[in-house]
Amino acid sequence: MKTTFIISLVSLVSFKSSAQKTPADSLRDIGQLQTAIEQYSEQYLDDPANKYNTYNYACALALSEQIDSAFHYLNIALTGDTTARPLNDPDFYFLLEDSRWADLENEMIKRIEEAFFTYKYPDLVKELWRMKIKDQAFYYHENLAENKLFNSAIWELKRKINEQNLDRLEEIIEEYGWPKQSEVGHMAAGTVFLIIQHADLETQKKYLPTMTEAANNDEAQWSSLAMLMDRINMREGKPQIYGSQIRGNGDGNFEVYEIENPEYVNQRRAEVGLGPIEDYVKIWDIEWTIEQKAK
Predict the structure, then answer these.
(1) Smaller CB count within 10 Å for the chain: N or C?
(2) What is the pLDDT of residue 295?
(3) Residue 106 neighbours by CB distance under 10 Å
(4) Beta strands in the chain (DSSP E)
(5) Pairing of β 246-248 and β 254-256
(6) pTM of the model
């Protein structure tokens, strides 16, 4: 029996993707957090100006719930940063309830507004950042879980988080209207897509016209809308358009869910800002063999 997987890939943190993976990063990825932390510490002593290492050091400390140390090194890593990406990183889930997280948010808002533009709803921006962290939290733990009971507990926790996020998002839309990129920025606006992408089919179809209008007006990302369209089509048993949906094939491997006219999928992906499908599917060790054409 084939199992459909929920796929939502979002590049959150520039620090993590900008540097070549280190031995400490590899240890972190396999769950050996304490050993990774020791190596990050040694690297920090050797090169304290390396923000990539310092940031990942803070991430590992946060994941292991060493809260004070995580804040210490995160503050160092974020010196002068104006991307807002770190304030959307799910590795910092365990820092959210600490008052120092609100200080970081306020400082980031100040920097962004001084450097770029003024948010129309700064408090809403900060709330949406937090909602994104909650939406993306615990995938790290789920990927490492070997015990089925523990894995089930993680997904039950995520289900509850998704329900809470959706309830709150609908209140936000009722109060503010659709959160627009021009009013809350790209990062916060992206939260709306993630929450809807993880909602039930009825909710996804309810908000599809609104998100389509937003994308047509440059107030939402077309790449995100494309993924939502694919998700809806898959749930309705229809071929997807952009090739974003991956499923288990029953033997422990993955496959691309059926695509309409797959020989043109890269052309369609390029039109909405998605990269080539052959690169995308490598994440799941899938080899794309269908020759691409253009109309």
Answers:
(1) N
(2) 86
(3) 12
(4) 3-4, 246-248, 254-256
(5) antiparallel
(6) 0.90
